[in-house]
Amino acid sequence: MRWRKHLFWAVLAPSILFILLAPAFSLLDLDNRDLCAVKAVKSTAAHRLVIWKFATEMIMRKPVTGWGMDSSRAIPGGSEVVSIANCFDSSRGKMVDYVGERIPLHPHNAAFQLWLELGAIGVLIAVGSIVHLLRRADRNGAAGRGDRPLTAAVFSSTFIVYNVSFGIWQSWLIFACIVLFTLTSLSRGPTHAT
Predict the structure, then answer these.
(1) Could you tell me the residue ranges of all domains in the chain?
(2) Shortest CA distance to 79 belongs to which of 112, 110, 54, 44?
(3) Cβ of 156: how many Cβ atoms within 10 Å?
């Protein structure tokens, strides 16, 4: 059942790579038409893209050390209200200029927040810690109990939530993750030989 171990890491790899490659988002060139198309599908998504674009610009100013832990709310120009997209609103029958802050409190994405606040040094420490904990969870039980799919699913779903909605330092979310990962480690699946 060696393929299970490889599948486990194949499921986790995109999340870990996303953290490492998040600053590459600055290479995307989004124009008003793109943002209006996104806004038509999900109203807050266009604002998220503007936030992430600004965050990557600020990451590039201090890529190694970042701006400092929990500094997102104080990033220069972050609280500035800017035009997100000037789109035609069919319900109003006119063009509407949607506006928002460049970074309202935090980037609403854990990968961007790590890069923005802690830089490459902090990202490497965080990714190293994540990989170490996942390897330890796999070595200390998930493999023998057949819990690799559960561990991968819990990590991946937590990763998705952290990267579309919340700030990384929110204590209630950190506590929820601790409880979730503790319950996952205490789970007992059927024993399989690896």
Answers:
(1) 2-20+122-186, 24-112
(2) 54
(3) 14
